[in-house]
Design brief:
- This protein is α/β, with parallel strands linked by helices.
- The protein folds into two domains: 16-121, no CATH class; 126-199, 2-Layer Sandwich (Histidine-containing Protein, Chain: A), CATH 3.30.1340.
- It contains six helices and eight strands.
- It has helices at 2-11, 54-67, 98-107, 126-140, 143-149, 174-185, and strands at 24-26, 77-83, 86-93, 114-117, 120-121, 156-161, 164-171, 192-199.
- Strands 1, 2, 3, 4 and 5 form a five-stranded mixed β-sheet that branches. Strands 6-7-8 form a three-stranded mixed β-sheet.
- The radius of gyration is 17 Å and the shape is globular.
């Protein structure tokens, strides 16, 4: 089952920033981070850390580096906060190596002096792996929601911990948000479903 999860995750890695719809989330920070997602990594040299442009530049760099992590998948969620030259990483990941990998790429960004790594590694569980696979099929195999799986970055992320499912990411409307809950609740072995999906602004 672990090999099947790894194979599926390999197919669902985040490789294009232009369609990054909620998998990498800038959290509330000491200085407000923009909510939009940068499509490209345009800046090659960091502005001075005390300049007005530095946080915007750093926000884009952190998002870019996290989005390019090779094993980041639909079964993980990452967030971050920026406080001056400190980056606080948050989220939950199914693959343990993602936690140090995320810290490693962020701490090498120019100007970053400290990384606080609060990413939670989800417990190993054959049952949770089965639920991940079944929930993925239930959501993305359903035709109304299948459109989200055809994007370069599937926008509905499925986080499973001890049989409890949390849905994160972005959908187009309230109907799709509710349908995702219904589909996840119908998966055998699921104890609860928390729906944190955000409706995309038109």
């Amino acid at each position: 089952m672990t090999n099947r999860i790894s194979s599926l995750a390999r197919l669902l890695i985040i490789g294009l920033l232009a369609a990054a719809l909620g998998g990498i989330t800038p959290m509330a920070s000491a200085a407000t981070s923009p909510s939009g997602l940068s499509g490209t990594n345009t800046a090659h040299q960091a502005p001075a850390t005390n300049s007005a442009n530095y946080e915007q530049w750093l926000n884009n760099q952190v998002r870019h580096e996290l989005a390019m992590l090779p094993w980041y998948s639909v079964f993980d969620t990452l967030g971050y906060r920026i406080d001056g030259t400190t980056v606080i990483l948050e989220g939950q990941v199914a693959r343990a190596s993602l936690k140090p990998d995320a810290e490693g790429v962020v701490k090498h960004i120019e100007g970053v002096e400290k990384v606080v790594n609060n990413i939670e590694v989800l417990p190993l569980s054959p049952m949770d792996n089965q639920i991940r696979m079944a929930t993925f099929r239930a959501i993305y195999g359903n035709s109304p929601l299948g459109i989200y799986g055809r994007q370069p970055v599937p926008s509905i992320h499925i986080i499973v911990k001890n049989g409890n499912v949390t849905l994160t990411g972005v959908v187009n409307n309230e109907m799709d948000k509710n349908l995702a809950s219904i589909r996840a609740n119908g998966v055998s072995g699921v104890f609860s479903v928390t729906n944190n999906l955000v409706i995309e602004r038109s």
